[in-house]
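Quarterly update, task 2.4: zinc ion-bound model.
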Amino acid sequence: MTDGVMLARPIPGLVNASQRVSHVFPIPATPAPPRRITALCGASFGPGQLERLDNPSGMPCERCLTTSPQGARNPGLPTARLDAIERTLHQMQVQINGIKTALAATLGEHHDHDEVRRKDSDGLP
Ligand SMILES: [Zn+2]
């Protein structure tokens, strides 16, 4: 895995101006710079063919953005799953509460009142 990503675009003259988009590159884990570096979209560049961008500028590469590990799509998935789990849990909680209420209503007339009265009388002198 990689620690993060960086932005870089082809140097002037390498490609058409319309293709000089800011690609997203995974920062390699190795300390030595690799011979070729491949953007998230699959575009590959050799040494000296890229200028690194410290800030996003110009046209971003849309394919890089949609496949970016830090994009909105991937982090959304576990969150969506969590939401579904929480919704199911909430539904179960509602059902349990309903059962509790029904039980209390059924038992209340017979047991609960007696128990409450017994507990109260135990506590009182
Ligand atoms: Zn790209």
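Highlight for this quarter: Residues 75-125 form one domain.
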